[in-house]
Design goal:
Strand content of chain B: 15-25%
Helix content of chain A: 40-55%
CATH topology of the largest domain in chain B: Rossmann fold
CATH class of the largest domain in chain B: Alpha Beta
Strand order of the largest sheet of chain A: 5-4-3-2-1-9-8-7-6
Oligomer: heterodimer
CATH class of chain A: Alpha Beta
Shape of chain A: globular
Order of helices and strands of chain B: EEHHEHEHEHEHHEHEHEHEHEEHEHHEH
Chain lengths: 268, 406
């Protein structure tokens, strides 16, 4: 299946380029600006983007993404609004891949089938559900496959090689390596060299030319230290930048975040 | 729908995914899969290990002071004029509540699995204090997560934990209550699972924590069954067990030996919150299936799947979900559920204090408030057993303010 995720990774491979996958919570700082933020990422060269659908008990997230989700929810950015954001984004950008990230209860309450149908309708390409691990996720992965949406499997430092091989059977074109024991927004705990060592192991174990991206603790300061990886996810630093722009009262989130994204790409 | 098997502990009647019917499971981050698997293996081994069980027996007897008393409260029987009222006086367990039963087990598991630090959550502060005590006893470092709203309303408990050498971590996000305490504790554990053991104070979170807590608290029901036979010569024919339910630790413990005895009625009492407000913590009554803190259970949530903010005079019951065990027991028709308001709870505190001299904490006052409604309707040959699972020392500030007795 030639999905947008695969297409974009193939282009990157041809160019021998790595990529920075930016994350923004749908609806932070508000619905309009977060749509513009997503568009600015695409305009500045993002090929794969992550958008958070918010929940109010996010146990895998540290303060920056928690605060960002809470701001979005205060603006009424529940799942339906996030779908609208993606729909609006797709009017201008049809080639980039969009991955939604969030927690399972929101899908469950919306109804898994309805949720996936709506994802397909608005142009979502992949899903990261941080509290739906393997093998609990198998029935959901099958539903995703049936409708043509990629399920991004997560791998952590605690995941054994034997388990990675099993997870691989239910992985689609992209897997996500959590760089450390911890929640999003923590400082990187392990050396980039150690992370890359595990990254290479994962690449070997996940047969079928699957792309592996690395997230958690990735900021402007550490990007340079990663060489030849498929992709790096930056979320918390983006959320913090939005927070700062709100604190400054300058309504400049779009400008600031787009500046940050350009810097991140330059650091690669 | 499956039915309850006799002779097998109810906690073990889950499927290979850790689900009791539609509830339970492991909806956790990938990072925690391995620690959960390791803890599951360790616990299944330890619960059958003679050395571990002997040691636990020693601490139960000599440190906690078990068995806790079981007695009739004739003044209440007479006052309500119906069923005979008997109580398991679990507040007599060292530390002032049943929470110590679970805390000791977790501290022993931490030692057995070579962890030097233990983390845990607390709402009313009894789980936190009990964990701080157990950590001191076993030489472990303790980190206790507590919502800032609860720290304010249960100040004495915060001091108590700190005086025991535990670090109390304020959780200021969201509701600032037990929900946030559990979330923050899970986050800390995720970051430190290679060296820290996590204790969950209630029968919530993913399967293994539900099981450990329920197993640890089952001692309450086991003792009560024996004590009942001593008192009545047998399990009474017309017996109802009435217990407050928040995260389900004291109620599960009390029910545990009676779940497969079909003639015994199990009644759960939820925190209805302020009179007429409909924002209480009564998730078994008003909740729908959802996921919080790693497992599926009945959950108070809105149409977008957002976890509701609940309100209850009792910090220990102020939690928007409940144990998967209880949701399943309710589905099976084994558990009936009612709720009482904050105001009814205050009335029951006054009544029980004056008539019996017992001063139940706000959590078991819910059971007494429900018993006040049930007992007069029952015949004199019926029995209501309840669990006074904590004493009210921690609640004196709240009670003084609300009751204005001077």
């Amino acid at each position: 299946m030639q999905t947008r995720i695969k297409k974009n990774f193939d282009i990157l491979s041809k160019l021998k380029e790595s990529t920075v996958i930016p994350f923004v919570s749908g609806g932070d700082p508000d619905v309009k600006q977060s749509t513009e933020i997503l568009k600015s990422f695409a305009k500045n060269g993002a090929r794969i983007l992550e958008c958070g659908f918010n929940w109010n008990a996010p146990v895998s997230d540290g303060d920056p993404i928690q605060n960002s989700s809470y701001r979005a929810l205060k603006n009424g950015a529940y799942i339906e609004k996030v779908f609208e954001i993606i729909k609006e984004f797709r009017k201008d950008y049809k080639e980039q891949a969009i991955i939604l990230m969030g927690y399972y209860n929101v899908c469950l309450k919306f109804g898994e089938n309805n949720f996936l149908k709506e994802c397909k309708n608005v142009g979502v390409d992949g899903l990261i559900i941080s509290d739906l691990p393997f093998p609990e996720n198998i029935p959901f992965v099958i539903k995703c496959r049936n409708i043509g949406i990629s399920f991004v499997q997560l791998i952590a430092p605690t995941t054994s090689n034997e388990r990675i091989a099993k997870i691989n059977e239910y992985a689609d074109e992209m897997v996500y390596y959590i760089s450390m024991l911890g929640v999003t927004g923590s400082a990187l705990k392990n050396s980039p060299e150690d992370i890359q060592k595990k990254y290479l192991e994962i690449k070997k174990l996940c047969s079928g030319n699957k792309r592996t991206v690395i997230g958690f603790g990735i900021t402007q300061n550490v990007i340079k230290k990663f060489k030849n990886v498929d992709g790096l996810v930056v979320g918390s630093q983006i959320c913090k930048t939005i927070e700062k722009s709100i604190e400054n009262g300058q309504n400049s989130a779009v400008v600031e975040v787009s500046k940050l994204y350009k810097t991140l790409l330059n650091e690669l | 729908m499956s039915s309850i098997k006799k002779g097998i502990p109810f906690i073990d009647q889950h499927d290979e995914n850790g689900m009791w019917g539609k509830y339970g499971g492991n909806f956790i981050g990938e990072t925690l899969k391995k620690p959960v698997e390791d803890l599951t293996k360790a616990f299944e081994k330890l619960r059958n290990d003679k050395g571990f069980l002997d040691e636990l027996e020693y601490y139960r007897k000599n440190y906690i002071g078990r068995p806790t008393p079981f007695l009739e409260l004739p003044a209440l029987t007479k006052h309500w004029g119906g069923a005979k009222i008997v109580v398991k006086h679990e507040a007599q367990a060292y530390s002032g509540s049943h929470k110590i039963n679970n805390a000791i087990v977790h501290a022993m598991i931490a030692v057995a699995t070579n962890k030097k630090e233990i983390c845990g959550d607390t709402g009313a502060g009894y789980a936190g204090s009990a964990l701080a005590i157990a950590a001191s006893l076993f030489g472990l470092k303790a980190k206790i997560f507590m919502g800032t709203h609860d720290m304010e309303r249960q100040k004495i408990q915060v001091f108590r934990m700190r005086s025991l050498g535990a670090e109390v971590i304020p959780c200021h996000q969201g509701s600032k209550t037990l929900v946030e305490a559990v979330s923050s504790c899970i986050r800390y554990y995720t970051a430190n699972c290679d060296r820290v053991h996590m204790c969950v104070g209630s029968c919530v979170s993913s399967t293994i924590w539900v099981k450990i807590c329920a197993w640890a608290q089952s001692i309450i029901g086991k003792e009560m069954e024996e004590q009942m036979i001593d008192m009545f010569g047998k399990i009474p024919e017309k017996l109802s067990i009435v217990c407050a339910i928040g995260g389900g630790s004291s109620s599960y413990g009390t029910y545990s030996s009676f779940i497969d005895k079909d003639h015994v009625k199990l009644i759960g009492v939820e925190a209805g919150g302020p009179e007429g407000k409909k924002n209480g913590a009564d998730s078994l009554s008003r909740g729908t299936i959802g996921i919080l803190h790693g497992s599926k259970s009945l959950l108070l949530q809105d149409r977008n799947g957002m976890v509701s903010n609940t309100t209850s005079i009792s910090a220990g019951l102020d939690y928007p979900s409940n144990s998967p065990l209880h949701s399943h027991l309710k589905d099976l028709g084994r558990l009936s559920v009612m709720s009482v308001s904050d105001e009814e709870v205050l009335e029951s505190f006054k009544l029980v204090s004056r008539l019996t001299g017992l001063q139940p904490s706000l959590e078991p006052c819910h059971s007494f408030a429900a018993t006040a409604k049930l007992a007069p309707r029952l015949s004199k040959d019926s029995v209501i057993a309840t669990n006074c699972c904590g004493n009210a020392l921690k609640d004196m500030d709240i009670l003084a303010e609300r009751l204005k007795l001077d």
